[in-house]
Amino acid sequence: MADGGDDDSPYKINEGDYVMLKRGEIYKAVQIQSKKKVVFEKQWFFLDNAVGDLYSTTFEIVSGGQLQPVKPKDEASAASDTKEVGTDNRNIMDDGKSQKLTRDDIETLKEQGLKGQEIIQKLIDNSSTFRDKTEYAQDKYIKKKKKKYENTVTILKPTCRIMALMYHGREPGKICHLRYDTLAQMLTLANVHAGSKVLVFETCAGLVLGAVMERMGGYGSVIQMYPGGGPVRAGVENFGFPAHFHDTLHDFPICHVNALLAGTLDTSPKDPDTGEEAPHPDVAAEAQPKMEDTPDDSENVETNASGEPGTDDDRQRSKDAKAQLKRAKQEERRKKLAAAAAQLEGMNADGLVIASRFHPCPVLMCLLRFLSPSRPFVVYSQYKEPLVECFTKLKEQGGTVNLRLTDTWLRHYQVLPNRTHPMLLMSGGGGYLLSGITVETDHSRQANSEEPAPKKQKVTEEPAAKKQKVTES
Amino acid sequence: MSFVEYSEEIRDGDMAIVYQGHESMMPVKVRHGAQTQTRYGAIRHSADLIGKRYGAKVTCSKGGWVYVLHPTPELWTVTLPHRTQILYTTDIATITLMLELKPGSVVCESGTGSGSLSHAILRTIAPTGHLHTVEFHQQRAQKAEEEFAEHRVDHLVTVTNADVCEDGFGVTGVADAVFLDIPAPWEAVRHAKAALKAHGGRMCSFSPCMEQVQRTRQALLAANFEELSTLEVVLRVHEVRSVSMPLPDFGPDAEAPPDRGAAPLRTTTPPREMPAHTGYLTFAAKPRDRRL
């Protein structure tokens, strides 16, 4: 299929690529790994044969779970035949006798290696009522049978649109029921674009973070503020971003935010050889053990979620090497924390996106402080009431304008000649958004007129500073 | 200031948004020595704007104050001078996601209209993408070009004054996405197909009327477009209110606690009237060319 020109190379499927499988409206995210069995829509197969083919190719699953590219002709042929059709359904009886093929017959056909299209043709030929069905009913019949017997799969390059559709369709619970059009509003309302510095707080499996990263295109920086032990973002892997995108991604544990604001977060290097702490054992040092075990947990969460086995087999290594590794990891983590802290300390982020199962109010109030004035923010919640609370609090507190609490209503249409109408089912709700723009307050003006160094902010950031005084005394 | 890059400080030549209240914003071209009248009196650009930080509170001559905001495509959409009916943010957001726009995307658009969507596209495809926008109205095309320059996004866009139905987009095989907002989109479907990359791409047509959608979809199917999908997105705004609901008097009751009266309730109300329809969005995918 591919004529091998250089032009094709960005469109080629490679081993190790993260791809999306598609059949009808069903999607699944997988990685191309050789000899790895993939299960999709109750069928198993191997993706090895897809390597070297182009993205958007449709494959037929043939015996042994191998993939074979479908020739474009096959796809089109079925529809074009002239058909004998009935006018209405007055002569059609629901007696269960119209199909002469039995389930066993169909199984035999399958074993003989008949393709989905051929089986459907046999079903039509053996249906006593097909000819009496109206043209519309015939279409519907074929569509239904296609869904059941066709065993094709299309391999697509992952995009934010497909990821959002997939999560919404398969696992809405994992993304706090964030509907794709709501995600679209968030990315636009937060003015997410290349070159900016965006804060993200999400518990949507990495979908929102990945969506923000896609819109940034590897320019600027994204800081994931994460709750608990470690950042959970299995979804980001499935976007299949080039390596340099990940250089722009920082993460910062939200449990260190108070320390950061108070200027007591210590990210100075520890002696890597002895593993001894730097001479200022403080908040950060105390929190260090917490940091240690949890990211490992999160790695497990990630691999479980994407269904892949762990790559490293750390367990088999000697204790000594383990300790060494731990220290190296610790150092690595410290560096990352310091880099993320440096990004935040400027208090000059360009955008804030929140979408989580946590109560949005404290998260928003805390993270808004990291934004420059005149920058947009958007908060998603599955429920309206917490956003009403956020709205009320922001109105009291000031420092924001253009506050809006919204949701979107999404309706799909069937458009067919003389049969155009809204779909019979629609999504009942896609969640709620609170959006707004930061402005300068007397408070922030004061803070910003000083050096942004966190030590000095200790004086102005009252809540954190007060807390600090208590612990110091 | 640029529509694709934030700045901290307001400078001479910038376009800034003066925020006077929720439903009251206006775009201002910042010029040394110039003045702008607001509902709270005049703002002197040299003294009140230039050198100030975006987001600053500015006191006007009559003592009231306004905020000066950094422009974004979304603020531009609600403040721009209308030369045509425009696309609003709810549709724009959906279009951007469903067309899979991102930095580096090459997009073809027609018509340019008042440039509401164009600015949002440019924001998303910068710094490496390009927008080819075609407008059949000569003055509108020219005005849009001027605005792109003022907003410092002109390096990302080519404006052509032509009828897309007859002349197409002036480019072939380069676009990742095509957007049509014209009276007879079915006449431009072949041009959309020609403009899209040989490896395939996505297109969207915006039409207020279902009859237009039907004809467009027929043309799309005839041109072998796939995955057709027509949808409609409506924004619902929830106004946050405190309401108090009085309690009726049921007469004396010895067991009932003393009357506390009703506590005010924080809730939301829908607006009495709201925009119910803008247009139908029809999306389609152009498959890879057969020869590939």
How are the secondary structure elements laid out?
The complex is a heterodimer of chains A (473) and B (292).
Chain A lengths: L17 E6 L2 E6 L5 E4 L2 E4 L10 E6 L3 E4 L2 H9 L22 H9 L4 H10 L9 H15 L2 E5 L3 H11 L9 H10 L7 E6 L4 H10 L4 E6 L7 H5 L4 H5 L1 E5 L3 H6 L20 H24 L12 H27 L5 E5 L4 H8 L8 E6 L3 H13 L2 E15 L6 E2 L9 E7 L3 H8 L4 H7 L1 H11 L1
Parallel strand pairs in A: 8-9, 8-11, 9-10, 11-12
Antiparallel strand pairs in A: 1-2, 1-7, 3-4, 5-6, 5-7, 12-15, 13-14, 13-15
Helix pairs in contact in A: 3-4, 5-7, 13-14
Chain B lengths: L14 E7 L2 E6 L5 E4 L2 E4 H5 L7 E3 L5 E5 L3 H7 L9 H10 L7 E5 L5 H10 L4 E6 L2 H13 L6 E5 L2 H4 L9 E4 L8 H7 L5 E7 L2 H13 L3 E18 L21 E5 L10 E7 L6
Parallel strand pairs in B: 7-8, 7-10, 8-9, 10-11
Antiparallel strand pairs in B: 1-2, 1-6, 3-4, 5-6, 11-14, 12-13, 12-14
Helix pairs in contact in B: 2-4
Structure description:
Chain A: Belongs to the TRM6/GCD10 family. Chain A: It is found in: Nucleus. Chain A: It comes from Hippocampus comes (Tiger tail seahorse). Chain A: One of its GO terms (biological process) is tRNA methylation. The complex is a heterodimer of chains A (473) and B (292). Chain A has 473 residues and is an alpha/beta fold. Chain A has 2 domains: 1-157, Vcp-like ATPase, Chain A, domain 2; 172-472, Rossmann fold, CATH 3.40.50.150. Chain A is built from 17 helices and 15 strands. In chain A, helix 3 packs across helix 4, helix 5 runs antiparallel to helix 7 (207-216) and helix 13 (360-367) packs parallel to helix 14. Chain B has 2 domains: 15-71, Vcp-like ATPase, Chain A, domain 2; 75-234 and 276-286, Rossmann fold (3-Layer(aba) Sandwich), CATH 3.40.50.150. In chain B, helix 2 packs antiparallel against helix 4. The radius of gyration of chain B is 24 Å and the shape is flat. The chains are: A alpha/beta (473), B alpha/beta (292).
